[in-house]
Amino acid sequence: MSDDPVKLIASLAARARAAARHVAGLTDEKKATALRFAAQALRDGASDILSANAVDLARGQGNGMSGAMLDRLRLDEARVEGIAAAVATVADLADPVGQVIDARERPNGLALSRVRVPIGVIGIIYESRPNVTADAAALCVRSGNAVILRGGSEAVESNRAIHAAMVRGLQEAGVPGDAVQLVPTTDRGAVGALLTASGAIDLIIPRGGRSLVERVQNEARVPVLAHLDGINHVFVHRSADRDMATRIVLDAKMRRTGICGAMETLLIDREWPHAAALISALVERGCAVRGDDAARALVPSIDVAEAADWDTEYLDAIASVAIVDGVDAALAHIAAHGSHHTDAIVAEDETVAERFLREVDSAIVLWNASTQFADGGEFGLGAEIGIATGRLHARGPVALEGLTTYKWLGRGSGQIRV
Length: 418
Fold this sequence. Notes:
single chain, alpha/beta, Aldehyde Dehydrogenase, Chain A, domain 1, Aldehyde Dehydrogenase, Chain A, domain 2, seven-stranded parallel sheet, 16 strands, globular
């Protein structure tokens, strides 16, 4: 195999294209069976996967990797079983391919229908989490696509072991191994080659930090499905129930601080009488709070929020808090500082809540629920490939339907256009 990144990616893409044609023609049951075989192969290969992961962990510790990053990287028997179970769950999902989106018959008798079809060859660039290797492969195969995976160098051995197990299972079920390929090099030039492989790769999906996603969006000559940040807000309206607001805010921020659905900014209506107690509850849970002047007047012990805080995805036990003049000010703040990911309102006033749902331009907008529900599994979609915050193709949790496109079918009886 060539050491030149451009030639390497061209070779992988050509093989993926051939495999994609095969996978696209598989029946629902054959794709599901192949993923069940892959899930079993992951279970059977658990010892090899854990040994490979130990190598990555030792390297990460030696390189000074943070505790949070090591936790993302670390696998144990339970996590490997979770990876296998997630693949098996995808096997049980409804196949979107061939679904009729709509149909109509023209006055001349020509019957038209719009049906879901696979996208083709998908490139996925990701960091840290080795479970993405299996999740991405399963979702792409289930939706009839071939995939080229490029994981981060910090998880290289884990990714290779998971990939090898997935391929063994797929091949045992009669699916070509080239349907799921892992870029064999950690050379960053391979990322650039993926991004510029227009015509060879149909869609790029980045999963990782801001620097990765920005590079992908800046350099790609292939369509990209991505999000940058999860700068998510919870707005507590003056009509909010105190206990409900406290539960939602603490969960949204503190359940898991390092996920993209975590709340980063809390907006509190100036007319809500329990703001000081809510801010104090965050502090008591171990959250470092940074507030505007009005918030600090209520709880003087919190830190000063700088201008940059309103535009920061902390991914940590840190939150910025602003006291705002009602829903108009909350909407203006979210429009100015949000990342179009996930925003929520806590309110008993249905009219205000419906306005918030209508006017906040984010992929996910919630009423009286935690932002931590921003997850494909919680939406009943099974595993997800990520949360898309753009406005085209797919938006929000991207699962099987988001990995398809559509085509028009026409069934005639000799019609001609004159």
